Amino acid sequence: MGTSSVRPPSAEVVPRLLIRDPDIWLAWVAWGVIAFSVVQVLTFSFGRDQSIYALVGEGVLHGKMPYRDLWDFKPPGIFLVYALAQGLFGRGMAAVRVLEAFGMLGMVFGFMRLAETFFERQRAGLVGGAVAALIHAELDFWHSGQPEIFGGFLTVAALVMVSTRVHSRRSVWLWLGVGALFGLAFLFKPPLGGGAIVCGAYLIKRERQRDASASRTLLVLLVVSVGAALPILACGAWFAARGSWPALHWTLAEFTPGYTALGWQGREAAKMLYYALEEAFFRFSALAAAGVIAMASITPIHSREREGTFLVLGVIAVQLAGVAMQGKFFAYHYAASLQLVGFLAGLGLYKLWRRCLPGGLGGALAFASFIAIAADMLTAIHDLPQSFSERAAIRLQYVLRIPPYTSREALDRELSYVADFNLAADRDVGLEVRSRTASADPIFVWGFEPAIYWFAERTPSSRFIYDVAQRSEWQKGYARAELLRDLHARVPALIIVQHDDVFPGVTGHTWDSHDELPGFPELAAFIDRGYEPVKRIEDFDLYQRKAASSLR
What we know:
The chain is mostly helical. It has 25 helices and 6 strands.
């Protein structure tokens, strides 16, 4: 029986196959979320902490020193960032947000690089960047612009450097850079520097896989340690050269430990660590939680996936140990960890997306529905007066100048308040101060609102730009004596006394600044003897200096 061959159809009658990247739609959505999140952050005004950092940062630009001339008890890195932002982009609340936005974009590209290295899927990192950027936007004005945010950006940069392979002759410079990045992160929040331990161990393991000698392994440890120490020592030398070391030492070695101890009262270390872990992975974002679960439960997409995820998880573990050590569990304390949780969630969501693709359009729609529901199910912050979607819509109206949100002032009156804080009231007080004082007149705020100095554009009479140190049980004797010395040396033209600023987690008691005055008779007498009440604006009593008073 003969065989017959079947001729293939000519090229003219074969339908053209449309070859498309199935991830392109996911990429467009991810970039859209990132762009939306960046726009949100660019519209954020100051919260209380941000006004502190901005005031100190502005002082640094004019030759003043943190702690000695303008006091706060955060590590020095954040003041330098705010100084840099204002030096680059001018005096304004938007300056640091521009720098923050650049950091967010750098984080996204860093995640893409990490994903390419460990998963050979850049878009898994892009999805992780979108998740992290969305959480960042959900932190809103109060919990963004914080030390942990910028320390987190440095951590991502260090992870990218750790994952980079270079010629053995250039490895020393890479190790030094990794250490230096974590040393800089230490200057924002000391526990963030602990990532150097994890990354150093990773580098040592990689060298051992290359059959490195014991001396080279020791060299890794030495170079990373030297790199981490360099920025810390440089910062210390700067303070010593400017005569500010005693103020730094009192603040960070004597005042801050007492503040931290408040969070440990009646608590156990193991339970605090578990609480930090639970919060970071499951209490800020349902989308991130679902992504992390998918990451852990779906088969790895690359042989190095576990290597990359364990590296990131190790850094997160050190960071969360630091959160537990602080004992406060404020949302922004998790900010650096939330960035990395977003990266891991992005990997999980990407793997889930690839699992849904064989279902065609139905699978894609099911994935999109899941993402939409999870994103709205739980958002990062719950103590603001509106939901995240409502606040986001209002901010977009401001960007497009849609009435009534055509000015920063209108936006702040609608959104920039939480608990006892109201940025619009601070602005009103600041403008009133400006109308009652000359530009060279110093003023003093007995309260917790440094934004008043910012809006008034008047210099503080004391380095204590808010009164927590004088209200704390563990250091108020020294702090009060220093404050009185400042006030007598530079008598304020106007004093503002605040009501309802109660912070038991910060001061250790439930009295506000006004109620604290009878227990601080020297300051009460200073005000009674030399000042008279002239106006009340919201929670603030304004006292003008009497014409014939002599307080020096």
